[in-house]
Amino acid sequence: MKNNSVSFTSKIQFVDRQCFSMLKKKNYIGYRHNELNILKAPEFYSTEIRTCTGGGLVTPKVEAEGFHFWDDLTNKKKFNILVNSLFRFVKNPERGILLGSKELNNVQSKYSVEQFQNFKKVFMEKVKNVTLFEQHRNTNSQTNYHYNLDTDTWTLCSSFTLPESGKVKYVTRLNDLRECFVNISIADGDRLFIGKKEIKFSDAPDIFKTKK
Fold it and tell me: Is 131 left (phi over 0), alpha (psi -120 to 50) or beta?
């Protein structure tokens, strides 16, 4: 029987490249059509989410899955199949995270934002608590993620290139996070950390759905 009085809190932590590379990771999720694009497991990770859409669905302490979908015509045509697959593996997810996409205005990435928006619409309809890191601002930005069901923790590593200097910058401060994504929305119950610092409602009320 489900205990409705229990409230789980997911942790979302941004780290730099060195910290992410030092994580012990297993169960890779790729974006190519000859790789696993959806994986249900207690732990998983994916890398180089740029114009693609990535993320996961979770029932904390019970089950979780991650995904990474290429923003190409093939996935555009099979969108409904992808959605059905996601909600078949984790049938009644309590929490979700959706990240990626990029507006490049070129032929290769013309479905990027459209794909993200389509998944966003479905997630908002089917999942009570959804955190969004929506649309990389920078041409060269990308995000890697790792999830651990035991600790209910998403570890994210996002980077972008500063146009004036060409220097690669990682999200290590709140301002970096704002510079990396067009829209940030932290679901009720999720806790956001950048490095070891927790970002609270008082730090950024505009990105939190509900004051906790």
Answer: beta
Tell me which long-range contacts 194-201 makes (C-beta under 8 A, separation of at least 24): 194/13, 194/14, 195/13, 195/14, 195/15, 195/16, 199/174
Task: Compute the distance between CA of residue 50 and CA of residue 30 in angstroms, rounded to an integer.
Answer: 12
CA 39 to chain CA centroid, nearest Å: 14
Q: What is residue 174's three-state secondary structure?
A: helix
Q: Encode the chain (212 residues) as per-residue pLDDT tens digits.
A: 344 434 456 899 999 999 999 999 999 999 999 999 999 999 999 999 999 999 999 999 899 999 999 999 999 999 999 999 999 999 899 999 999 999 987 656 789 999 999 999 999 999 999 999 999 999 889 999 999 999 999 999 999 998 778 899 999 999 999 999 999 999 999 999 999 999 999 999 999 975 44
pTM of the shown model: 0.92
